[in-house]
Amino acid sequence: MSAARGFVPDPPVRVKEYKIGCIGAGMIMAECHLAAYRQAGFPVVAIASRTQQRAEAVAARWEIPAVHATPSALIADANVDIIDIAFPPDQQPALIREALAQPHIKAILAQKPLALTLDEAKALRDEAASAGKILSVNQNMRYDQSMRVLKQILDRGELGTVVVGTIEMRAIPHWQDFLEDYDRLTLANMSVHHLDVLRFLFGDPDAITTVARPDPRTKFAHTDGITVSTLTFPNGVLALSMEDVWTGPREEDFDSDIYIKWRVEGTQGVAQGTIGWPNGSPSTLSYASKRATDGKWVTPAWDTMWFPHAFIGVMEQLQYALKSGEVPALSVADNVRTVALVEAGYRSIAEARTVRLSEISVD
């Protein structure tokens, strides 16, 4: 049905010639990046991680020919064109800078959050520009199939003028151990998906109000466990992003009803759906439009999923930017604006007020 209505839930693979070196061998690399790259035919030529043993195990699973003892050794490998980083954000900037200094490295794919502070993110943006290298940030929710089809519906004007949009998450993330050492939790590491995709759908907001409380399940000290952010946009759109990482006492064998739901309402139609990540299923979308469906609900379908298939699009847009000379779809300059939105959310929590994005400099 997606094809029948002209929707493209997964972008085509236009370029797959650049050799990738992967830094990191944890779940996101082993289960998502490398699974996607195998399916797309992207050449992965080397891997390194914090422990060589872990890197060797992942290399054997995915038939990666070279294992380096350290990330620095991988970055120095002249056979690598693109560095793909899946490392803690406090360690990521140093790796990016090492890669920018190597003449043979053509581009870098970084994880989000790009850095722990907005100032660091801006510095990395500027250093990449000075080096003449592409730095892209893995905001993979923009390649979730429901989000891409929703964006196509919005761009066609099939919902009319957007009035309100919501993302409601009731799911339990696996917090990596390194997060215990940071003073920021959900907003920087989970809400960043939703805040970024709201920018993708509606443009840059002009204000954000975020409230938060600790999550009873998360044992280490934190402030932003459960978060709710409302955003206003210059075009009048009101949006809400809620991250309920508690969802109830699941340790006591409660029946699961975890989910991520979204809904967008316009003057000419409504779209709603789910993100399949918490349950390991494809995301969904249904919409009804006075302009396009005579007010009847239509449900485009696809077999691919956010994890791992979105990671094909993320790496492909970087390879295409290298080949074509065009700005990558996930450019670091654009991502700095997402980091600024997260920063504004934290300021809103700290000062218990609405924060205008004009207060946060991205220059």
TrEMBL record:
Domain (Gfo/Idh/MocA-like oxidoreductase N-terminal): residue spans on this chain: 19-138
Lineage summary: Bacteria, Pseudomonadati, Pseudomonadota, Alphaproteobacteria, Hyphomicrobiales
Pfam families in the cross-refs: GFO_IDH_MocA (PF01408), GFO_IDH_MocA_C3 (PF22725)
Location of the GFO/IDH/MocA-like oxidoreductase domain: 148-270
Protein name: Gfo/Idh/MocA family oxidoreductase
Cleaved signal peptide residues: none
PANTHER family: CONSERVED EXPRESSED OXIDOREDUCTASE (EUROFUNG), CONSERVED EXPRESSED OXIDOREDUCTASE (EUROFUNG)-RELATED
Keywords in alphabetical order: Oxidoreductase
Top-rank lineage group of the source organism: Bacteria
Species annotation: Rhizobium meliloti
